[in-house]
Amino acid sequence: MSWQALADELDRWAASGGAATLWWRDDDAAEVTPALERLLALAATSGVPLALAIVPGQLSPALVARLADCDGVSVLQHGWRHANHAGKGEGGWELGDHRPLADVLAELALGRERLAAAFGARFLPVLAPPWNHIAPRVVQALPGAGFTGLSSFRARASAAPAPGLAQVNGHCDPITWKGGARFAGTAKTLADLTGHLYARRSGAADPAEPTGLVTHHLALDEPAWTFVAELLRRATAHPAALWQSASDIFPG
After folding, report:
1. What domains can you pick out in the chain, each with its CATH number?
2. Radius of gyration of the chain (CA)
3. How far is 202 from 238, CA to CA, in rounded Å?
4. Who contacts 103 (Cβ-Cβ below 8 Å, separation ≥6)?
5. Mean pLDDT by 10-residue block, N- to C-terminus, for the chain (252 residues)?
6. Which residues, at least 6 apart from 5, have a Cβ–Cβ distance to it below 8 Å?
7. How far apart are CA 59 and CA 114, in angstroms?
8. pTM of model > 0.85
9. Based on the number of CB atoms within 10 Å of its own CB, is 174 exposed (0-12), middle (13-18) or buried (19 or more)?
């Protein structure tokens, strides 16, 4: 997949009179680092709204202060402490069936309260599960725990997986994780992004779900940073592309 293929797909959206809605989520924030500063600078220079998924159990006061004047940055909740409770070979699960549901929900509620106190209206009660893994019973319990939104990965099966809960996922991650985090390559990453845009336009996926770019600022290598900057530039320049903020796509 090439940059031209993305441009062609956006041209088809323009020809159909539709807006190719996009959004940007970045995971694993907890403290101020050089990578976070680079992320915030890229968001500011591109003018693209950023949804920053913060790990509340690791939140540093410095990060709260740093984001105070960052217009265009929304805060989502990234689990509790990004701790894996699964067994060997099961993948990463903080929000799985490995512990009593009451314990999982108590941690999530504590995290929600911490982020709300730290960030006020900038915080949206939207959960981005660590490793994009969450057990169905946890999903069903989220509205009762004060959450109005859920963001995982890949095309959503439902816009409302539980009563009072809106789901909007990410669909494109420039990092490949097997064998150590590194850039997945332009062709692979654009195939995921363009593929979801095509699926929406053709009706194979929910047309109303914005196509999501998911980054992990702490894991981006130089080729990945270059790709993300180029994607933001090209998509922003195309008249059919519309970048949305988290507050645009999740209920208050």
Report:
1. 3-243 (3.20.20.370)
2. 17
3. 20
4. none
5. 94 95 97 98 97 97 96 95 67 76 94 97 96 94 97 96 97 93 96 97 97 98 98 97 96 70
6. 190, 194
7. 9
8. yes
9. buried
